[in-house]
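Allow me, if you will, to draw on your knowledge of protein folds for a short while. The matter concerns a single protein, recorded as an amino acid sequence and a row of backbone structure tokens. Kindly check, if you would, that the fold set down in the tokens agrees with what the sequence suggests. You will find the record immediately after this paragraph.
***
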Amino acid sequence: MLGLYISVFLGMLSETSMNITLPDLMNDFGISSGTAQWMVVGYMLAIGVVLPCVGFMLKWIKAKTLVLFALACFLVGAVICTIAPSFPVLLAGRIMQGISTGIVLPTMYAAIMRVFPLRKIGAANGVAGLVIMFAPVIGPTIAGALIGAFSWRAIFALFAFAALVAIVCTALFFVTPIERTRPNVDALSIITSAIGFGCLVAGVSLISDMGFSPMVIGLLAIGVLVLAFYAYRQLHIADPLLDLRALGIAAFRTPAIMISCSFSCTLAFMYLVPQELQRGMGLSSTVAGLLMLPGGVINALCTLAAGRMFDRHGARKLVWIGSVLTIIGGALFFAIGVSTPVILFLAAHIIVMIGIPFIQQSSQSAALKSLPGHMAADGSTIMNTMQQVCGAIATAVATCLLGLGQTNYAAAGGVNPAQGFVDGSRYGYLFGMVLVVVVLACSFLLKEKKEEPQLVPVHVDIEKLAA
């Protein structure tokens, strides 16, 4: 699993480390915040388009071959971004990286379901969660340090080096634990999947720059209609691209929704926080990154702990603990101002980084555990598709709310850009807290799968019994 763990860590690190670079990219390329956010949304858009096809790809292509191809895409994309002379070229390299992450993310979970026994799914998922959840919080620290010492281009150079390491580890150690059944290829499903998810995420993302213009409304309408047709087709053909029947299992559907909401909350917070530290509180990118490191370390420890605690206590109680802590941390984020002491930010960030793993890991383990083995690849693909598409939408919504808050501040006569950014960020934090409340409400509907009792052989002394 080492090659996959490094690959997914690299993908998630790339997904979130860009937040702290956005002010530098805006200055270097002379672009707006709405355009710059495509470094985040475009990446997730690529993931969202590729993800629904991965379960099907794994039924046709050797998992090892697929992962090596994905890592090659990531390496080429990182090199392009390192030398990019303009923003469109930079975005093109970024999208190649998104394609890579879209492949390796569900592949990791599908492999986990084949490698580890059911009773150890929580612990195994804890390691996978450490890979996924640690990256978003350590990413800004690494990015801030590299920007301070060199420039934003050094971040992509680091990605290229890490991709080479992942390629070597995958080539040496990874096996193919997923059987290939080679079902019929439904080209129409592939086309509608790409169009539907692409139009939906693109439409939401463009709202921040274009408002509800005819183009945006058209993209949203096309996305919804095409996805509705796509879903209908998957449920009525013999060899679906993605087996959506998994969503008919309540024990899978509920935690999948909870995962999407909590992941969206995390990305919304991680999009706003680094920028607020720089543009609201006037800190450098290096200092902003370092301030996020303590929460990252604590997040790593809590992610491992949550995975192991799931095997003993189940998901519901852990979700309750995580939801309450995340809401408290979000409320503290809401209280941050231009002259707020740094200690308040540290407290808010650490509390959120404790709470999110309890939601994310327990929900993920509950969802995976509820599925039969033959649906593991489709189930992991569905979950990751929901996470990435919802995450892209959440980032776009946070951007819109940030702009709305800044506009309202200016309309009220405000003239301090830093205070305007802080006011706008609060709108985004409130959105994140609402998502966590949805998670908390869904937790009461959790139906956790119990392990089947195992028959234990008993030794009987026949001679003694006869006597």
